[in-house]
TrEMBL record:
GO cellular component: plasma membrane
Signal sequence region: none
A Pfam short name: ABC_membrane
GO aspect biological process, one term: glutathione transmembrane transport
Protein name: Thiol reductant ABC exporter subunit CydC
Keywords: ATP-binding, Cell membrane, Membrane, Nucleotide-binding, Transmembrane, Transmembrane helix, Transport
Membrane topology: Multi-pass membrane protein
Gene behind the chain: cydC
Biological classification of the source: Bacteria, Bacillati, Bacillota, Bacilli, Bacillales
Gene3D superfamilies associated with the record: ABC transporter type 1, transmembrane domain, P-loop containing nucleotide triphosphate hydrolases
ABC transmembrane type-1 domain residues: 19-303
Compartments, record wording: Cell membrane
Keyword flag Ubl conjugation: no
InterPro entries linked: AAA+_ATPase, ABC1_TM_dom, ABC1_TM_sf, ABC_CydC/D, ABC_transporter-like_ATP-bd, ABC_transporter-like_CS, P-loop_NTPase, Type_1_exporter
PROSITE patterns: ABC_TM1F, ABC_TRANSPORTER_1, ABC_TRANSPORTER_2
Length: 576
């Protein structure tokens, strides 16, 4: 993705509001400038002790007018600007989610949790500053620079040219030099902040392991050391920033002196009234105040670019051939899942799946076995439409899954190794499968997975909080809650992605019995790496080197395949 894909589209969508914000910003600055100008003139004119108050009545009204205009326009600018930015940030979050959601099955292999947290929190929030602290004030300052030079030209073109050159240093050279000096530091600070995000998140998720190993002090020491290095680098950058701001203020002071000498010369030549000297000198303050933030605005550009790069990197990596999205509605009443000579590879050197085929009709149960890395999880990603085959097709009722990815959830539900439970009530976690389900529907699903009596025995019943990631429940209980959720989803196809990993043998058997009992009318694709319970499947496929090495029913394979018999005898006595 290019930079403009995260910046320009939103500017084009909100072009009128952007122009309004810049206009209000310019009005604010010009009101502040004319407020100081008329105030200087009023003070000087009043010092001459005019004979009648009417002689200073106009500047008095002008001071009030510009004072009110400055406050009102500043408020309107901030209100409009933040309204736009909050809307843009919201749209960015939705867009980022829509990028991540189709490839959710592959996220853990592409990102660490801390990296993803940094993208969702730090990077998107940081981009709002690109508008508020760089684009809006930058454009307003450039307009003000041009208007100031043109305005001085009405009095003296030679002095206007001198002012243009002098202010050019403040408007352009100071920000550019500041960018060149701080660019490397800013990138290191951004990278260091991302690393701290990742390390802290990783440590929080593994805090029990740190405690049990007795290494928590070592982690804290290591983290604080890296944090101190980050703060030291930040201090160096702040030191340069303070020196730069001091130099800029001195530079502004020089321009005030130049303005003072020029107005004094104009007065001496009779080209300007003495009451205008203070007016011209005072107007410098609000004008230069608009130029000073430009240095900070430009130095943040590299960090904006890094945020855009990280957000663009979150886009799913498209592999395989391109599949056009289909407008045809997926029929979910009688679903047939088909792998037709599917070949897929993550690189050009080896195939994860090599001309792999099977057909799973409505109501059939199939066990897909294989060692880790044999292509089982890749098959799941292909069914979900997160990946596209290099050749061949993965279809649901004849429609390629990648072409109807937005409809997959209506046809396929997945129970994986670690289903996520949200930090809310049991009722809400189960209802996630169907937002329209009533309380009675939720309880009926819980009864079917044999969890209702246990839930009712809890002090708060179905309103009991499962706590973060469902930590208050055992592994088997978490799987049953997820199972009830899938029951409410009521899809014709159920995919079991090694749901019994980490469970003891008794709990594993009870969970499998429950699964095959409540889903006896459903199509089941059971992805597993061991053979406990496979006799309940109508069909067994053993995946190896991307191909179906063994295929048939449990009884057929026991009778005809010596390797299967050995694997079954080794595996089943231990796990049943």
């Amino acid at each position: 993705m290019r930079k403009e894909e995260w910046i320009l589209p939103y500017m084009k969508q909100n072009a009128r509001l952007f122009v309004l914000v810049i206009f209000l910003g310019a009005v604010t600055i010009f009101s502040a400038a004319f407020l100081m100008f008329t105030s200087g003139f009023l003070i000087s004119k009043s010092a001459t002790r005019p004979e009648n108050i009417l002689l200073v009545y106009v500047p008095i009204v002008a001071v009030r007018t510009f004072g009110i205009a400055r406050s009102v326009s500043r408020y309107a600018e901030r209100l409009t600007g933040h309204h736009i930015i909050l809307k843009i940030v919201s749209d960015m979050r939705v867009r980022l989610y829509n990028m991540l959601e189709p490839a959710s099955l592959m996220l853990s292999s592409r990102f660490r949790t801390g990296d993803m947290l940094g993208i969702l929190a730090e990077d998107i929030e940081h981009l709002q500053d690109a508008f508020l602290k760089t684009i809006f004030p930058g454009v307003s300052a450039l307009l003000l620079y041009a208007a100031s030079v043109i305005g001085l030209g009405f009095f003296s073109w030679p002095f206007a040219a001198l002012a243009a050159i002098y202010l050019f240093v403040l408007v352009v050279l100071f920000p550019v030099v500041s960018l060149l000096v701080t660019r490397a530091k800013n990138m290191r600070l951004k990278s260091g902040r991302n690393t701290l995000y990742s390390r802290l998140t990783d440590a929080v998720l593994g805090v029990s392991d740190w405690m049990f190993s007795g290494r928590q002090a070592a982690f804290i020491s290591s983290y604080e050391e890296k944090e101190k290095a980050w703060f030291d680098l930040e201090s160096k950058r702040q030191r340069f920033t303070r020196l730069r701001d001091l130099a800029a203020q001195c530079f502004v002071g020089g321009f005030i002196l130049i303005m003072l000498f020029w107005t004094a010369g104009q007065y001496a030549d009779g080209s300007m009234a003495n009451t205008m000297i203070a007016a011209f000198v005072l107007v410098v303050f609000p004008l230069t105040e608009a130029f000073l933030p430009l240095s900070d605005a430009l130095t943040e550009v590299p960090s904006y670019q890094d945020s855009i790069r990280r957000m663009s990197k979150a886009a799913p990596e498209l592999r395989g051939r391109e599949v056009k999205q289909s407008d045809e509605k997926l029929d979910v009443t009688d679903v047939t899942l088909t792998f037709d000579n599917v070949t897929f590879s993550y690189d050009q050197h080896s195939h994860v799946l090599d001309r792999f085929s099977f057909t799973l009709r409505q109501g059939e149960k199939m066990a897909l076995l294989g060692r880790s890395g044999s292509g089982k999880s890749t098959s799941l990603a292909l069914i979900e439409g997160a990946l596209v085959p290099d050749s061949g097709k993965v279809t649901l009722n004849g429609l390629e899954t990648a072409a109807v990815q937005d409809q997959i959830s209506s046809a396929v539900a997945v129970l994986n190794q670690k289903p996520h439970l949200f930090n809310t009530s049991i009722m809400n976690n189960i209802r996630l499968g169907n937002g329209k389900a009533s309380d009675e529907d939720v309880k009926r699903a819980a009864r079917q997975v044999k969890l209702h009596d246990y839930i009712e025995s809890l002090p708060d019943g179905y309103e009991t909080s499962v706590q973060e990631t469902g930590i208050r429940f055992s592994g088997g209980e978490r799987q049953r809650i997820a199972l009830a959720r899938i029951l409410l989803q009521d899809t014709p196809v159920i995919i079991l992605d090694e749901p019994t990993v980490g469970l003891d043998a008794v709990t594993e058997r009870e969970l499998l019995d429950t699964i095959f009992d409540v889903f006896k009318e459903k199509t089941i694709l059971w992805i597993t790496h061991h053979l406990a319970g496979v006799e309940t499947a109508d069909k067994i496929v053993f995946l190896e080197n991307g191909k179906a090495e063994m295929e048939g029913t449990h009884q057929e394979l026991l009778a005809e395949n010596e390797r299967y018999r050995k694997l079954y005898r080794l595996d089943v006595p231990i796990r049943t």
